[in-house]
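Journal club side-thread
Mid-discussion, someone asked how the predicted structure for our own chain would compare to the paper's figures. Pasting it here so we can look after the session.
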Amino acid sequence: MAAPVGWDDPIEPLAVDSAPRPAYGTGSLADLLPTLAAGLGVPGMTATISELTPADRVCVFLIDGLGWEQLRAHPDEAPYLTSLLGSSRGGTGTPLTTGYPATTATSLASVGTGLPPGAHGLPGYVVRNPATGDLMNQLRWQPWTEPAVWQPYPTVFERASAAGVHAAQVSAPAFQNTPLTKVALSGGTFHGRLTGEERMDLAARQLAAGDRSLVYTYYAELDGAGHRYGVASDTWRGQLMYVDRLVQRLAEQLPPRSALYVTADHGMLDIPFDDEHRFDFDLDWELRAGVALLGGEGRARHVYAVPGAENDVLTCWREVLGEHFWVASRAEAVDAGWFGPRIDPRVHDRLGDVIAAARDDVLIIASEREPKESAMVGNHGSMTPAEQFVPLLEVRS
């Protein structure tokens, strides 16, 4: 797969074009399921990750928060996953990139639809709904917005099921009827199981249920441990050890003619709790000036200006944030391909008038309006390798 653009290039202060662009079309999360579905003979699907060999039965195990860099830094906690680094299709080369922003709602939509954020329309953790003018949390789906209107494209699972492929999702029961599942991962059958072990066992059985199968399974708790305690914590490392055992459990049960792919929705990094690393929007009058709404999250902000103040907000944010963030206008971010090669018209105004992506180990918190998010140790969202790079590990039977 092609290397992402810009990670090895010298970075000029505040240069929007210096931000490393995700590898849309050759090696991003949005390319994974279309490539696998093409190998299953699903019409309209194109294999853009050329290194992946087709299999009759395919399972994608997405581990929330398992970044490529974090995995490589913890070989003792993840011996089985580490053993796959040298033999997997993505192990010795360039890992997948998540797409921008590197956040769960955006990435899951990219995985399930096979589209980049600018097309599927979930371009951030919190974005403005142009129809109402209010902020919408796309992970929690608050306030309610009709899912099929917000994201109208069929999922890869729906297309695979229509083509006669046995499609299934195996996840926590609580996710079965969420709007995010409906817009990103629906199609075929959903199977809810509480424990990780139950999910692995059932995923293997679902693979064997069809001559051609496409199965997705998911584990969220590693991400939660990272947010609460950080990726340097004993709690996070304990979760990684558990995840490692789950992957091995599933791999050892693969039916014949199967391929298991282990990936993630984003990486993560710990941000210190001090004024040098956390800019507080709620306490900084310069950052607040001319801003009507603050969206996104700490490392990937969508900033919605008061009408007429867009240029002033852009200038001010660039001056205040200095060399710590790539700060772009909406047009600059679109032209630079941050959200993919095209932006659907319905998505255009969901993007901020100003978009700020962290380059250093920093956050833009909002201590009063976002107290829980502002208290997180581990964070993600931007385009740095620690957040963007996710594994693509392969096991075949």
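Post-session note: Residues 12 and 49 are 31 Å apart (CA to CA).
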